[in-house]
Amino acid sequence: QVARQNTRRTDQEIIYQVRDLYFGTVLANKLAQIAQKTHTRLSATLELTESLYKKGAGKVKKTDYLKNKIFVKSVRGMQTRLQSQADNARAGLAFYMGLSWETNITLSDSEIPISKTDVSLKQLVDGTLRFNPNWLSLQAGLNAYDGKIREAKSETRPRLALIGNLEFININYDKGVVAPQNTRSWQVGLGLEFPLFNGFRTHHKVKEMKARLTQLEHQKILLHEGLATQIKVLHQKLLALQEHLSSAQEALSAAQENHQLTDLGYQADLLEVQDLIEAQTIESIVQAQYHTLCYDHYQTYIQIEKLIGTEIERYLNE
After folding, report:
1. Fewer Cβ close by (within 10 Å): the C or N end of the chain?
2. Nearest 5 degrees, angle CA 27-CA 90-CA 20?
């Protein structure tokens, strides 16, 4: 049972790492796409700024043009770095999955799932005590030492053995050792072993097993509190991230609407080019923050599942 739980723990660690790396790669791709889209928008705005500056209408100064140019080049560098990180994440995922370095991975997801759940803290703790491999391994250890105590105590008791033997030789030849009187034989014996004195070895062996059992029972208490505390911290973090995600989603909708209105205002010559650049930048930053929060939420969710030892939805549906 202990070996089986160790195998489960290894399997769950691999599953967690692959899920984490996979959606980490999805996040890296998403941030690279946001950076690319932002650079494309700002490049178009820079061309417009350059055109207005060169016409000399006075609406755009050279300093405005240079500021925009510096900013666009900085975003270009950021885009290159994010794309490189996305490529590295994809290569790392392939390596961790045991695939060849030449393997080209295509991700089936473009968004990070948000698994919101209203499961209570007590349900999570109860699930941990049912499925966590460390907890089940410790329980198996307690059972094993309980058996070892009974085994040690049995050494003080007499041993009684009934021994029997029956032989039958089925052969037509009836000479020599297979004469008729030798083809059938039986034997019965009774053995008795009574321990008189073994230098108190059995007594101290029982005490040793009881001490180890007590040690495991203390470890059980510590493990219970440790698992419950970890679940509590992760549960609180998950709830906080769910609230943060709701706020971030509202902020993203506001940033997108602000960008659209600013774009219309700029086209109507009611707003400056700096206002448009600022609106584009804010939308990109809020988008990046939102998708990063999605990843943080998903990572916390699978950390809870790893600690429990099974999927939350499967546990709740049992």
Report:
1. C
2. 55
Are the beta carbons of 317 and 311 closer than 8 angstroms?
A: no
- Note the pLDDT tens digit of each residue in 14-50: 999 999 999 999 999 999 999 999 888 888 888 877 7
End-to-end CA distance of the chain: 22
Cβ–Cβ < 8 Å for 85, 28: yes
pLDDT single digits (tens) 91-131: 888 888 888 888 888 889 889 988 777 788 999 999 898 89
Exposure string for 84-101, b = 16+ CB within 10 A, e = fewer = ebbeebbeebbeeeeeee
Going by the DSSP 8-state scheme, the letter that residue 128 receives in this structure is H
Residue 126 · residue 306 · CB < 8 Å: no
Q: Tell the residue number behind the tokens 């004469």, with chain if given.
A: 179
DSSP state of 237: H
pTM over 0.85: no
Block residue for tokens 């679940």 = 231
Eight-class DSSP state of 160: E
